[in-house]
Amino acid sequence: MQGKNKVYIRALEKEIGRLIENEQSALVFGPRQVGKTTLIKKCLSKLDHYTEYLLQNPEIRMEFEKDPSLLIRQIEALKEKPFVFIDEAQKVPDLFDAVQYLIDEKKANFIITGSSARKLRRKGTNLLPGRVKSYSLSPLSWNEMGWIKGNYIPQLKMENVNKKIEYTFEKSLIFGSLPGIVAQAEDQDRESFLKAYAHIYLEEEIRAEALSRKIGAFSRFLELAASESGTSPNLTKLSMESGVSVPAVKEFFRLLEDTLIVERVDPYLKNARKRILSTPRYYFFDLGVRNALANMPFNNDLINLQKGILFEHAVVLEIIRRIKILGENYKVCFWRTSGGAEVDCVIDCGQQVIPIEIKASKKVYLPELKGLNNFIEEYHKIAKQGYVITLGDKVEKITDKIIAIPWNYL
User: Fold this and answer.
1) Domain boundary among 266, 298, 326
2) Long-range contact list for 324-330, CB < 8 A, 24+ apart?
C-alpha cells in the first residue's frame, strides 16, 4: 500500500528497534493503513529470524478462532525463543491469553498490532498490563515528512526524521497523510485510494458490528459526522438527519473512537463533573479520510471552501500525533465559555496548560485573540504562554504572553 515501494522512516522506528534489541514485547495500535505492518516488519527484518501470524489471512484466522492454544504448541515446538509478530490481533481476541502464557513462561517475545479496541474491550480481553509496552501509530506527522523548520513550543519539540518529501502541506489538507497516499504520484490515484478506503471501512465495520439493518443510517451518519468533524456535534440534529435514535448516534461515535477513526477532544474545565456533562469534539484521524467520507471535492476548491476548518484540523491532529510519539501523558482539550470566548486547543500538561489559537491567515491581530487573552487571564497561574499558529512565514510577538508562529515552527 506504500505506492512505488516508498517506505518512510517513522518517528517510532528507533523506539521499536530498541525494544526489540532489549527483547521486550509491545502492542502497537493505529487505524488501518497508517503503516503498522510495514514499520514492524522493517524493524524485525534486522533479526536473523522471526515468526509472523497475519490474521488478515482468513485461513490463519480461522485456525486460531477454533483453537487459540495452537499458538502455544507451535511456539513451543521451535528450537529457539522467537520474536513473534501478530498483525491485526483484534480479529482473534482469545489469542491474548496464549500470548500472556508465552511471555510469562519466557518462551517468546511479541510485537502485536491492532486497528480496533472495540472487539477486545467488548470481550474483556486481557491486554497484557505490565508485560508489554503500548504505542500508537498515526498517519505521517510533520517531522516524518521533513516539514519542521523550528520548534517554539518546547513540550512538542521534534526533529525531522526524513528529508523534505515531494508532497506539499496544501496537498495534505486535501488528501491527508496516510503513507500510501503520500507515496502516490498522481492526485487521481490518491482520490481513488481514499474512496476505496472509505468504502472498505464502511463495509467491514458493518459486517464486524452486525449492523446490516443499519447500513444506510450508518453511511449517512458517517458523512454527516465527517462534515462536522472538529465541532461539538448536535446529537439531536444528527439523529434526525441520519434516521436513527440519539442513543444509536452515541453508539456510532463510540464505534468510530474504538476503531481509531476519530480523536475525541474534551472541553477544558476545572470541574471534572462539568467536563463529563459537556459535549466533546471529534476530529477524524486523517484529513483525506475525512474528506472522502464527507464527499468533499478533491481539488483546490475544497481549500477555498474550507480553509479555516482544514487548517485547524491539520494543526490539532499534528499536536495529538506528537504527544503520542513523544509518549507524554498530555491531554488535548478545547475551551469555550457560555459567552462565546473560545480557544481552539488547550494542552493540559498537568502542572501547566498551553493555550493555542489556530488562524488560517498569514497575519493576526490582537483583537482577533479575545478568547486566548481571556483564557490566559483566567488561568494565569498555570497558563504562562499562549500561541497562535498561522499560515505566515515569520514568528511574531503579539503581547508578552502571546506569540504567533508559522505552522512549520510548531
Assistant:
1) 326
2) 324/135, 324/136, 324/138, 325/11, 325/12, 325/141, 325/158, 326/156, 326/158, 327/135, 328/155, 330/155
